[in-house]
Amino acid sequence: MAKTAADCTTMTDIRENIDRVDQALMALFAERWSFINRAAEIKVGLGIPADVPERVKEVRDNAHRNATEHGLDGDFYEGIWAELIQHAIEHEKKLLGEG
């Protein structure tokens, strides 16, 4: 059963809820990835390359700001997003036949 951190009274409660949140995060990452695949399909028709530096900067800045707004370490989460972005660019390059 879903609980808030404050509602957890045992390590079992904590672990079950961390696992629940992790599963929800993976579902969100899968949804995000569906948009990456669709972006590649659209980019092919428009002649847009996989790596668009202005957009990369915008997404990284958004990650930093969103993390900070949630009381998290913006630099850390921007770093995670940098890896997500790089992985997506490499995937799109394969789909677009680049490099």
Automatic annotation (TrEMBL):
Query: What SMART domains does the record tag this protein with?
Result: CM_2
User: EC no.?
Assistant: 5.4.99.5
Q: Which PROSITE patterns match?
A: CHORISMATE_MUT_2
Keyword annotations for this protein, in alphabetical order, are: Isomerase
One Pfam family this sequence matches: CM_2
Q: Which stretches make up the Chorismate mutase domain?
A: 5-96
Q: Can you say what this protein is called?
A: chorismate mutase
Question: What's the source species for this entry?
Answer: Shinella lacus
